[in-house]
Amino acid sequence: xxxxxxxxxxxxxxxxxxxxxxxxxxxxxxxxxxxxxxxxxxxxxxxxxxxxxxxxxxxxxxxxxxxxxxxxxxxxxxxxxxxxxxxxxxxxxxxxxxxxxx
Amino acid sequence: xxxxxxxxxxxxxxxxxxxxxxxxxxxxxxxxxxxxxxxxxxxxxxxxxxxxxxxxxxxxxxxxxxxxxxxxxxxxxxxxxxxxxxxxxxxxxxxxxxxxxxxxxxxxxxxxxxxxxxxxxxxxxxxxxxxxxxxxxxxxxxxxxxxxxxxxxxxxxxxxxxxxxxxxxxxxxxxxxxxxxxxxxxxxxxxxxxxxxxxxxxxxxxxxxxxxxxxxxxxxxxxxxxxxxxxxxxxxxxxxxxxxxxxxxxxxxxxxxxxxxxxxxxxxxxxxxxxxxxxxxxxxxxxxxxxxxxxxxxxx
Lengths: 102, 300
Hints:
The structure holds 2 protein chains of 2 kinds. Chain A has 4 helices and 2 strands, in the order H-H-H-E-E-H. By secondary structure, chain A is mainly alpha-helical.
């Protein structure tokens, strides 16, 4: 059972772009495959717009109205920091769960 | 309507500045998703919600300054407050008392709609409740975060109340079914139905408590509330996306999309406005630009 049904779309988008540039449809399908989250176009582009405004992703030249996006250097740093934070939280939680078991 | 046209129509939910930057690719994504097996309705709902949220929160706009956020936060509060206070106080004052849970009984659908009107109205109430919760959720989100809110977007809330007022006037003027004419009878019936359904659609919570047929609910909240909101938003600033781009680029400069830091965006196909300089379109925008320039020496 999942505690939270809503993953952070920004993090999911950054993780997806860490693999390489992707356009909207490829992002949606990739996120669906690795996170099981089906992002609607409105949610996805709201997220992409926020990330681009913060300089974490940038657009590449469009191909037939499909704009690929890629992670910027600042985006890679931000993603690394966020994943480190999540990893430490996960490790702590797992340690506490293991210690608390009868 | 072709595929392209429906997807481009959906993107109209977003502000103009946003559409210029992301519209073509968002429309294309919608088409791709439908071709890939997604429900067109789900795609449409997602885009609609994103558009409404974007209009209220300025999502996607470059973070310009605390000045803008502070101004728009209070403007949105000023726009929302009279709406809440006026609608509820007048509705309670002018109605014939608290009639809890009587809304459905008091709707009184026209005879020509037959018995299935009951379910139609129930569905309409549910749809209205969803719409209202959506609108208010994004409005409060805008207040909470103090982003580049756009009070003029409250026009979304005004559509159905104004329709209700128009229908009430039309119904009264035409005389409804008492005139004996078949045409007037149908027109009166339509007016009556639109009035009752838009009443519960626009303010379903108020209608559920006070009764959808309450005179005060119609004449009070649906007449003065739009006026109050219109007064509050009359001085609403221009499209925040355009202002944000202009502020970032500096007066007379080019938008961030065409800046050297993102050369790949400038003049890219499918986005006719990319590469254009963003121009302020209102006196408010000019004042913000001047303030920004004085604070930052015109730096982008």
